[in-house]
Design brief:
Blueprint (H helix, E strand, L loop, with lengths): L6 E6 L2 E2 L4 E11 L10 E10 L2
């Protein structure tokens, strides 16, 4: 019996644009999604924007 393992890595950076706006780009890498080594690695990217009032 083998042990299957999903591995994920995430990196982000907070970039303040002004006192009220912050942009956060995010990159995720998921290795062996669904705990299946036959599944390919997934790369995702997101940009989050936060407005403070």
């Amino acid at each position: 019996m083998s042990i299957l393992q999903l591995t994920s890595r995430e990196a982000f950076y907070n970039m303040p644009i002004s006192d009220n706006i912050r942009v956060t780009p995010l990159v995720q890498v998921i290795i062996d999604p669904g705990n299946q080594s036959s599944n390919g690695t997934i790369f995702t990217g997101t940009v989050r924007t936060v407005f403070s009032f």
